[in-house]
Amino acid sequence: MALVLVTGASSGLGRDTANALADEGHDVVIHVRSPARLIDGEDTVRWKGVVTGDLAELDDIRGVARQAADYGRFDAVIHNAGVMHRPEVVTVNTVAPYMLTALMDKPARLVHLSSSMHRTGSTDLRRLAAGTASYDDSKLWVTTLALALAQRWEGTSSHAVDPGWVPTRMGGAGAPDDLAAGHRTQVWLATGDDVAPDTGGYWYHRQAHDPHPAARDEQFQAHLIQALESRTGVSLG
Question: Which of 60, 69, 81, 150 is 20 to 30 A off residue 209, Cα-Cα?
Fold first, then answer.
């Protein structure tokens, strides 16, 4: 049984991921933006716990990390929360995973939600400081962060996942990918014992693929982490 944190778990892929983990008997702590995002009374029984905070706000991100610390060291953290539009896109999609990772005890496994759209993201990190990053940029950067952590943190596996274009509120009703397949890879990476490569993978439906070349470029990884440290005042360590 694993202790797993899933961010952005009030609906969509995050909720599906959390439900699948709970169904398998794992202890699941869910993150939601506010208590009003909880669906019904089941939430107080089904989950190991609930942490709240707006991941578009740096102070709230710190608060989520403090709340998560009450549960001890997680076996896995799934950075699922995401938005598509400015001005929150870079903070929620990239800065929040970075800060939570830096502020929390190192888990055994990290899973970061990417997107096929990361392939058209920019390596111009001036957009991070300026707040002009696009969704594509944010997903390239969080993919890069995932693969950088795989190189830097011995003892912690770190992966990025493209869940596909699935029919959630974000993806839209006409999205062509299978909704159930959208969360299975995250659950597997967080709890499975047959993951290969065991760290540093970019995954789509449990198949390893090649990400944007910049995501594996060690110089770009270093520049990204420096930019995130400068943006947040938080060192990765």
Answer: 81
pLDDT at 228 over 80: yes
User: Which residues are CB-contacts of 31 (< 8 A; sequence separation ≥ 6)?
Assistant: 5, 6, 7, 8, 9, 50, 51, 52, 53, 55, 64, 68, 81
202 catalytic per annotation: no
Q: Which residues contact 138 (CB under 8 A, 6 or more apart)?
A: 89, 90, 92, 93, 94, 121
Burial class (CB in 10 A: 0-12, 13-18, 19+), 144: buried
The catalytic position among 48, 98, 106, 135 is: 135
| 57-96 pLDDT tens trace | 999 999 999 999 999 999 999 999 999 887 899 999 999 9
Beta partners for residue 207, in sequence order? 204
Domain boundary assignment for the chain: 3-232
What tokens were used for 70?
């009450």
Catalytic-residue membership of 48: no
Specify the 3-state DSSP secondary structure of 25: coil
And the tokens for 220? 């770009």
Q: CA-to-CA distance for 72 and 66, rounded, in angstroms?
A: 10
Give residue-wise pLDDT tens across range 164-190. 765 555 555 555 556 667 899 999 999
Question: What CATH number was assigned to the domain covering residues 3-232?
Answer: 3.40.50.720
Residue 49 pLDDT more than 70?
A: yes
- Alpha carbon distance 236, 159 (integer Å): 17
